[in-house]
Amino acid sequence: MQHFVKVIQGYIANQILHVTWCEFGNKLSSVGNLEEIHRTHAEYLNKAIFRQATILSFKAAPVMNIIHSIFSLILKFRSQLISQSWSFDAGKQMAVHPNFGLMQQSYNTFKYYSHFLFKVVTKLVNRGYQPHLEDFLLRINFNNYYKDN
Hints:
The protein is mainly alpha-helical. The chain contains five helices and two strands. A two-stranded antiparallel ribbon has the order 1-2. The longest helix is centred in the N-terminal third of the chain and has 27 residues, at 2-28. It is elongated. The mean pLDDT is 89.
């Protein structure tokens, strides 16, 4: 779950913020007056918003719904984890958590949704939709966790 959150964060930082910022820096080096700086900055903001909106577009709504569901599951898992403390069961000689069964269900659902997201995004990339999604696939599947299943 932590890996998934970091991948999404890294993807947004790399594909939206960093790329747009580099383009802005390159264009900024060729401006000659304050008006051009203002126009270049406005273009930078518009591109950043457009790229973010492209990811969240109507066409990408099903993908965003899956991602939203995954994040909801992560928050649910966290709530289940912190709602009660771990304790040591002397009879079993192991740590136990009162919500372990619920946490296991949340994790299994997360696993199902994340695998489904991987399949959907793979199909989108194979059809040529939003080529930058290849970066997401590489990040999420860097150890072939999803492809092997």
